[in-house]
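TL;DR need structure tokens for one chain.
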Amino acid sequence: MSTTPRPLHRPVVAAPINTGRVAVVTAAALALNLIALWIGGASGASLETNAPEPINALTVTITTLVVLIGGSTALGPISRRWSNVRNWAPTAGLAVGAVTMVMPFFAADDAKTGATLAAMHLITGLAWFGALRPSKAE
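>> reply
TL;DR here they are.
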């Protein structure tokens, strides 16, 4: 029998965020969100909501970049302090994207606009998951 105390848990060091993957996934998400905007506009969506800013390519671009680049940048220091956040943050972001898909239907003036914005919520949530999920090598 050993009297050497064993640690209760091993400290987990979070792998750094793969900025290359974040950049590629963000570019793909931005392209898909802009395509969704174009399809929505071409299908007759008014793209009018009760938001103070208009829905156009500029607001879609800014919103996509802020969520994915800004969010992953903020996650870096947070995960250094609480390393387990990297385990659940990708899934949490996907869940937020999926759950908030209903919001545009309440804010939009028509169903086509709601569907367009809901698709963008899902695209961005999937992109968050894809950009931040730990890979097998991490």
